[in-house]
Automatic annotation (TrEMBL), chain B:
Family as reported in the entry's similarity comment: Belongs to the binding-protein-dependent transport system permease family.
GO biological process per UniProt: transmembrane transport
Organism listed in the record: Pseudovibrio denitrificans
Membrane topology: Multi-pass membrane protein
Location relative to the cell: Cell membrane
Name this polypeptide is given: Oligopeptide transport system permease protein
CDD domains according to UniProt: TM_PBP2
Length: 543, 307
């Protein structure tokens, strides 16, 4: 039993959440106790699958149809768990409001912002449509949306992810709630947008005085904004306490592991005598935007005259926010996209605009690993088939047995049990799938690998393992990496040189150490400030 | 908006032209002619007939003559129904078929949509399973089986409804044919609505609506159904065409003087102008319905814009 005091607004008491599935009961939350006092910021931290979101979903009566709950959730002393929708609806949207992880889909695409902001205000009886419309404009102004009177008439698709999340915050504040539950509100956003949204939330909390429950996997955020922390692991709270205590003196092993999970170390310098693997000069990629009859062709320049030089064994980190052209650049270098200008030289061969036939033998040496470990493996092929598919093309002389042998080797190299090669991708976690994707690449003994956000979809602790795996593979095989990411911590741990991109242009370029310790351009500084990286501990080099 | 409609209608002209051209020549490729009877006509009579209907002229000239008359809105005389022009035949029968088809479409949308929503809300429960079972039956049992059974029960046994005839479009005469025609469409609409409704109910913005304490009606109808109805709207185009052509059997069984019987008679008797007329009319309907569907879609979904 947790201590009850008058200030406690929300109290979750021994909450259990089970899901009925075809393969039996899944116990998602196993007896969790959480209390939130008025005005405080409570963070619930854990990795995906820890039950942190389901705890709050259950409290709000938003579980999927197959969810079963036990325990009590008290709002100001009254149990609301399992109560009627009518009773719940008096509280949710009025006294307790939520912001979700997916800003792109959390708003109804078919209605204007105004309509969606007004609905809960009118529903809960505090406003008429006329007064609610006035308040909607005020709210948009409050959350920092420019031209609120005009934007209020906009549809969600006309806004960016950051703006949509601001609209969600406005919606959450409309009825002056006691508690705002924010479920990974910044995870889907760019770093600079993330920082702005966090700042906005902190500022609003100070002004309006509601309690905030912050569900996240990002410890950097927790340390910055929360008063108290609950650490969750596989459906249980393993540690709770003041933020300072938890960060200063973690007790539970899992907490320690989470705190230690930011990729650390940096790469050893590669000698200048190494041959230049990739030499690109003034690469330009253009897309023609949709043209209609009698409409002038509009050309979008996604990559604007970018040059790079990467030596064998080096890693070039390409950093930028979504839409900066970093993935496009990676593809253009591999000749997977047509270039509109410039020159790409791979190991002395000019491959600019090379034909498919000419590129074919080089493809073996120039590989690509994708961000999405769920979408990039064919669900109908076994892991063994996926890994060895490239061999069928590039080393057709191998027998089935030899290919199998290579698959075993490749899986061992990425620290996976080779016995798993007869299973299908859906049986694996995100981190394991990314290992499979890496094995698929490594089996071909490539020289140059373009890694397009390979760790972005993974939990921090898994990220760290994948980063280490990639570094070890690079060291063993002398691989050259183009490492594309928006995650500065990972880039710092991986790269020799770093290139910061914005809107298709290079903002800053230089040695990783210099960029991270003394950035010159404002945009780089902004990115670094937003990411709030931990200070580098000296003498922490991995290589 | 108006510009979009106009440009769509303009772009329908080449489509129609192609349809007319292809079906005109296909008809002529098929062996036999409108006046080939089991007992051949006298050569002189045949010659005169051919002269009257311009069949003695070269094919391309016939084609040009036909195009010209279609452009002036005249589908020519019927070869089989000697004393009628195609325009006269359609003037009588088309309104009846349209009334029948549109009533069936409206019924299918209302009943199918309602059943689909109910099934989605009670997903994997008894109601859901029974709605889906009935829907499967509705699709699989052909209407020439359903029609006699309904007629037997409601028309003959109980004597509530007339077993046939149009009665100038009286309500009692319409019930049985409309219901029979609509049944398979009800089934399809119910399945479509159920599927997209289940998806919509799981979507993030519906979760938002629930999290903000909105009433059941607002959540289900305002936020879930409007998005879920979009696939059903897309289905309206093909459904309308199916109802128009599918009425052949229904019109025959219930003895309704609609356009349906002309499909069969026109084709069997090589009534060139009648076949061409029906082809053009059906093509026009499909084109117009697709335009209506696109406009409806844009009304429901602001992301679709015309410019």
């Amino acid at each position: 039993m947790s201590k009850i005091n008058e200030n406690t607004v929300l109290e979750i008491d021994n909450l259990k959440v089970d899901f009925e599935t075809n393969t039996g009961m899944v116990h998602a939350v196993k007896g969790v106790n959480i209390h939130v006092d008025s005005g405080e910021t409570v963070a619930i931290v854990g990795e995906s699958g820890s039950g942190k979101s389901q705890t709050m979903m259950a409290a709000m009566g938003l579980l999927a149809g197959n969810g079963i709950t036990h325990g009590e959730v008290r709002y100001r002393g009254n149990n609301i768990l399992g109560s009627s929708i009518r009773k719940l609806n008096k509280i949710r949207g009025a006294k307790v409001t939520m912001i979700f992880q997916e800003p792109m889909t959390s708003l109804d695409p078919l209605y204007t912002i105004e309509r969606q902001l007004c609905e809960p205000m009118v529903e809960h009886g505090e406003y008429t449509w006329a007064t609610a419309k006035k308040r909607a404009v005020e709210l948009l102004e409050l959350v920092g949306i420019p031209e609120p009177a005009r934007k209020v008439k906009a549809y969600p698709y006309e806004m960016s992810g950051g703006q949509r999340q601001r609209v969600m915050i406005a919606m959450a504040l409309a009825n002056d709630p006691d508690i705002l539950i924010a479920d990974e509100p910044t995870t889907a956003l760019d770093v600079t947008t993330q920082a702005q949204i966090l700042e906005l939330m902190a500022d609003l909390q100070k002004r309006l005085g509601m309690a905030v429950v912050f569900i996240t996997h990002d410890l950097g955020i927790v340390e910055r904004i929360s008063d108290r922390v609950y650490v969750m692991k596989s459906g249980e709270v393993v540690e709770e306490g003041n933020t300072k205590e938890i960060f200063g003196n973690p007790q539970h092993d899992y907490t320690k592991m989470l705190l230690d999970a930011e990729p650390t170390g940096s790469k050893a310098v590669v000698p200048d005598s190494n041959p230049i693997v990739l030499d690109a000069k003034d690469v330009r990629v253009e897309f023609e935007t949709e043209t209609g009859f009698l409409k002038p062709n509009h050309v979008l320049r996604a990559v604007n005259d970018i040059s790079m030089e990467v030596r064998e064994g080096q890693t070039l980190g390409i950093v930028g926010e979504s839409g900066s052209g970093k993935s496009t650049l990676g593809r253009a270098v591999l000749q997977l996209l047509p270039t509109a200008g410039g020159r790409v030289v791979y190991l002395g061969n000019d491959i600019t605009g090379a034909t498919k036939k000419k590129m074919q033998p080089l493809r073996k040496e120039m590989q690509l690993i994708f961000q999405d470990p769920f979408g990039s493996l064919s669900p109908r092929m076994t892991v063994g088939q996926i890994i060895t598919e490239g061999l069928l093309v590039h080393e057709p002389q191998l027998s089935a047995k030899e290919r199998d042998q290579r698959a075993i080797q490749a899986l061992e190299e990425v620290s996976m049990d080779p016995a798993m090669r007869n299973r299908y991708p859906h049986e694996f976690s995100g981190g394991q799938r990314q290992r499979i994707a890496i094995a698929r690449t490594m089996i071909l003994n490539p020289k140059l690998v373009v890694l397009d956000e390979p760790t972005s979809a993974l939990d921090r602790t898994v990220q760290k393992q994948v980063v280490e795996l990639l570094r070890n593979l690079q060291k063993e095989h002398g691989l050259t990496y183009l490492f594309i990411s928006h995650d500065l911590a990972v880039v710092r741990a991986m790269s020799d040189t770093v290139m910061v991109m914005q809107k298709g242009e290079v903002v800053e370029k230089g040695l990783a150490e210099e960029i991270f310790s003394s950035p010159k351009e404002d945009y780089t500084k902004e990115l670094l400030a937003a990411a709030a990286l931990k200070q580098h501990k000296p003498g922490n080099q991995i290589f | 908006m108006l510009r979009y409609v106009l440009s769509r209608l303009l772009s329908a002209i080449p489509t129609l032209f192609l349809i007319i051209t292809i079906s005109f020549f296909l008809m002529r490729v098929a062996p036999g002619g409108p006046f080939d009877l089991e007992r051949p006509l006298e050569a002189k009579v045949m010659e005169n007939l051919n002269k009257i209907y311009n069949l003695d002229k070269p094919l391309w000239e016939q084609y040009l003559i036909y195009l010209k008359s279609v452009l002036s809105g005249d589908f020519g005389p019927s070869f089989f129904f000697r004393d009628f022009s195609i325009n006269e035949l359609f003037a009588q029968s088309l309104p009846i078929s349209m009334q029948l088809g549109l009533s069936a479409l409206a019924l299918a949308l209302a009943v199918g949509g309602f059943l689909g929503v109910i099934a989605a809300l009670r997903q994997n429960k008894g109601v859901d399973y029974s709605v889906m079972a009935v829907a499967t039956l509705g699709v699989t049992i052909p209407n020439f089986v359903v029609a006699p059974i309904l007629t037997l029960i409601l028309g003959v046994h109980y004597g509530w409804l007339p077993v046939g005839g149009w009665g100038g479009g009286a309500f009692v005469n319409m019930v049985l044919p409309v219901v029979t025609l609509a049944l398979p469409q009800i089934a399809v609409v119910a399945r479509l609505t159920r599927g997209s409704m289940i998806e919509a109910l799981r979507s993030n913005h519906v979760r938002t609506a629930r999290a903000y304490g909105l009433s059941g009606y607002t959540v289900v109808v305002v936020h879930a159904l409007r998005g879920a109805i979009l696939p059903v709207v897309s289905y309206l185009g093909p459904a309308a065409a199916a109802l128009l052509t599918g009425s052949v059997v229904i019109e025959t069984i219930f003895g309704i003087p609609g356009i349906g019987r002309y499909f069969v008679q026109g084709a069997l008797n090589r009534d060139y102008t009648l076949v061409m007329g029906t082809v053009v009319v059906v093509a026009c309907f499909v084109i117009i319905f697709n335009l209506i569907v696109d406009l409806l879609y844009a009304m429901l979904d602001p992301r679709v814009r015309f410019d």
